[in-house]
Amino acid sequence: MSTKYDVIVIGAGPAGYVAAIRAAQLGLKTACIDKMVDADGKQTLGGTCLNVGCIPSKALLDSSWKYHEAKDALDVHGISTSDVKIDVEAMIGRKRQIVKNLTGGVAALFKANGVDALAGKGKLLANKQVEFTANDGAVETYDAANVIISTGSVPINIPVAPVDNDVIVDSTGALEFTEVPKRLGVIGAGVIGLELGSVWARLGADVVCLEAQEDFLFMMDKQIAKEAKKTFTQQGLDIRLGARVTGSKVNGSEVEVTYQNAKGEEEKVTFDKLIVCVGRRPFTEGLLAADSGVELDERGFIFVDEQCATAVPGVYACGDVVRGPMLAHKGSEEGVMVAERIAGQKAQVNYDIIPNVIYTHPEIASVGLTEEQVKANGIDYNIGLFPFAASGRAMAANEAKGTVKMIADAKTDRIVGFHIIGPSAADLVQQIAIAMEFGATAEDIGMIVFSHPTLSETVKESALAVNGHAIHVANRKKRK
């Protein structure tokens, strides 16, 4: 005899656990299946993001930055330090405790909202039945009025550098180093590669990033990307563009990597550790029965419409396993949308206004269109730039590097893109994401009173600069 649920969610990452909580809040009998376990073999909720992704990487990024400041950057404040040391195991222990606190928090939220947490694997069968294989091997079948698939993504492995979880690791393994590698290689200079490379570079590793693309951060605004590369190079990251890895050979405790450089010449470099982070792919192994009715697209993503509905009525998919940017916040919003649509509401996600952040130091953040995309779309536009070097608050904090860039439609003055490299970029960009959601113009932002002295003033000044009205920087001549 099968158990009946209004909603069964497969996957408890940012998309899945949020969908499950929201569905339960709306009065739907909900279960959430997830196979991830902790070091003690107990179920741990939150998916990649909370366990081995967004949260633990930020913990290490913050710890490593504080070490760097204490060792090399406090003298400007008149603070003298000597013999500063880093206890890597203690740093990793702090990271683990943060993960434990947050994953335990999700479990508590499930309990508070009446969500049944099922530890194991879920497989979608025909007629919206879900086969549940518990982590102890027991198999059960559940009936569901609605199913939400949110199984997330996993790192892409490449044959030329197979992960052995010792010398060659993926992004998960890079969060567990117990000592600082002297020579660290990173295949991929994207978001994950830059963040992980930054952590270990600050702690003393010589870091080389091998990036196959010839354009640095090709998905970002080129002006911001150019400034970012210059900044990271000054910080000690050796970023080699147009570097296509062709092979690797592990020799005891080191690995020799062979790659073709931008000129087509073969080069070799030896590392003590090698991190492979060339992207992520949707995780669908063992997820769908042949007669489930759910289809995958040519890239392996579950095919869904704008509201995350699959071709099977009552079956939805959201998060990294579907189209769009692989971002935790995008997945969470899709989870809320799906739960509310199941409950009869008309929720939507505005995919045009999803902020994107790289948590290096300085942070890089963007929302909306890049200048290159605006040009490609044939939009006549104006740009407002403001440097953090002209911000009193940034100077006081010794964080005066970076730029704020606002792009507005020349005819309507509506903001179409916003990009920052600088202190607190992730939080500052959210101000304009909110403004864009309400159709704000650059003039609207320029008319708002911003408190002084704050980093936020750079946002206002960039808005004023769009129309040549900036006060605290010389205004550029308008483009012809």
UniProtKB/TrEMBL annotation:
Cofactors (names): FAD
Binding-site positions, NAD(+): 188-195, 211, 279
UniProt cofactor note: Binds 1 FAD per subunit.
Primary localization: cytoplasm
Subcellular location: Cytoplasm
InterPro entries membership: Class-I_Pyr_Nuc-Dis_Oxidored, FAD/NAD-bd_sf, FAD/NAD-binding_dom, FAD/NAD-linked_Rdtase_dimer_sf, Lipoamide_DH, Pyr_nuc-diS_OxRdtase, Pyr_nucl-diS_OxRdtase_dimer, Pyr_OxRdtase_I_AS
UniProt KW keywords: Cytoplasm, Disulfide bond, FAD, Flavoprotein, NAD, Nucleotide-binding, Oxidoreductase, Redox-active center
Transmembrane segments: none
Disulfide bonds: 49-54
Alphabetized Pfam families for the sequence: Pyr_redox_2, Pyr_redox_dim
Residues forming coiled coils: none
Catalytic activity: N(6)-[(R)-dihydrolipoyl]-L-lysyl-[protein] + NAD(+) = N(6)-[(R)-lipoyl]-L-lysyl-[protein] + NADH + H(+)
Record-linked NCBIfam families: lipoamide_DH (TIGR01350)
PANTHER family: DIHYDROLIPOYL DEHYDROGENASE, DISULFIDE OXIDOREDUCTASE
Record-given protein name: Dihydrolipoyl dehydrogenase
